[in-house]
């Protein structure tokens, strides 16, 4: 029984680690499998039970020993700063695949269920990075904070913080409070008050910042933003240059991640702006990501049945696209790919500028 468990553990580690660690575990697993089937009795029942036990051992070990813990020590007061601290909080992801941080995200997303699913989800995350390369999430977030910092001027200090990657926002809050910042504006950079926003609120409340004499204000999320909706609309219409071409638009929502009502409001806003152009050759669908993309694929196929020449895929569900969204786009286009229809993925080119302007406006209003 010991050998099958070791085989399972080695194989599991080879599919969740990357780089040289993945290579080491792959080589050792290959040698162990060869040794087992050559020198050990082929008891397939014991092999199955051993592999099953190894599955539980790896999942539990990931959550107990590997997951990146967020530790907030007792906060000490520093000399009071005159500046107002603006903290932009994103969900976030690391530039390269980071096992510890992604395990932490899985734990926050799935709770105790992660003790059964972490190995599978980590392997899936690793696959995103293997197929798409590095993440540009933090680079884009830095552009937003840099632009906002320039626009707000010297009375404000602007920093980035993240829910699922370093610097974690709890650690960043602790740091700025200890530096003496008493006036803090936190900007949750989410489209809707969905799962990430609710978790953000819960983690913020658990810090009990009021007992440290810190004045915390929150800006609003972005589903009400007319400018952001118009930005998507302009990008879509800008790609539809030929009026003789029948075009289809998939405005995809993420029901599991977002507040569904607010998600629909934002996508309907974009749809209404497009329809105001009175271009009857634009067919629009608002599918949700559910049932393993079935709703999206079905909506796309329905648009293709209308005889569209160009299909535009739009996912207006987050402020910055992450690896999950990019992988989703790739898989959708692969499912709908034909030699007769052209595809475009729409992401507004001026989105960073729009986010900066939106946050500047909200901060000015909240400070009055």
From TrEMBL:
Source species, domain of life: Bacteria
SUPFAM superfamilies (alphabetical): Chelatase (SSF53800)
Residues passing through the membrane, by range: 20-40, 47-66
Alphabetic keyword roster: Membrane, Transmembrane, Transmembrane helix
Annotated protein name in UniProt: Cobalamin biosynthesis protein CbiX
Organism per entry: Paraclostridium ghonii
């Amino acid at each position: 029984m010991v050998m099958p468990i070791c085989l399972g553990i080695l194989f599991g580690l080879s599919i969740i680690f990357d780089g040289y660690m993945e290579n080491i575990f792959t080589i050792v697993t290959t040698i162990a499998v060869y040794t087992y089937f050559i020198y050990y009795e082929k008891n397939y029942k014991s092999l199955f039970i051993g592999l099953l036990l190894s599955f539980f051992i790896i999942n539990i070990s990931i959550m107990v020993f590997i997951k990146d813990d967020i530790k907030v020590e007792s906060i000490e007061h520093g000399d009071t700063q005159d500046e107002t601290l603006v903290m932009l909080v994103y969900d976030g992801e690391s530039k390269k695949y980071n096992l510890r941080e992604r395990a932490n995200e899985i734990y926050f997303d799935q709770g105790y269920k992660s003790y059964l699913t972490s190995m599978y989800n980590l392997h899936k995350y690793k696959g995103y990075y293997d197929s798409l390369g590095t993440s540009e999430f933090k680079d884009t977030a830095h552009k937003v904070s840099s632009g906002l910092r320039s626009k707000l001027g010297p009375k404000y200090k602007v920093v980035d913080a993240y829910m699922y990657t370093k610097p974690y926002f709890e650690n960043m809050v602790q740091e700025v409070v200890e530096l003496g910042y008493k006036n803090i504006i936190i900007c949750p950079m989410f489209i809707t008050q969905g799962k990430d926003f609710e978790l953000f609120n819960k983690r913020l409340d658990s810090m009990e910042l009021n007992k440290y004499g810190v004045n915390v204000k929150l800006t609003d999320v972005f589903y009400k933003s007319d400018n952001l909706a118009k930005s998507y609309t302009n990008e879509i219409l800008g790609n539809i240059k030929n009026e003789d071409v029948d075009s289809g638009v998939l405005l995809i929502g993420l029901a599991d991640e977002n507040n569904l009502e607010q998600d629909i409001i934002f996508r309907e806003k974009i749809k209404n702006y497009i329809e105001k152009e009175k271009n009857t050759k634009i067919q629009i669908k608002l599918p949700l990501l559910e049932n393993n993309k079935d709703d999206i694929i079905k909506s796309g196929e329905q648009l293709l049945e209308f005889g569209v020449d160009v299909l535009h895929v739009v996912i207006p569900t987050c402020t910055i696209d992450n690896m999950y969204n990019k992988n989703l786009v790739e898989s959708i286009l692969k499912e709908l790919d034909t030699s007769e229809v052209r595809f475009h993925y729409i992401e507004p080119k001026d989105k960073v500028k729009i986010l900066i302007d939106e946050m500047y406006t909200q901060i000015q209003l909240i400070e009055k």
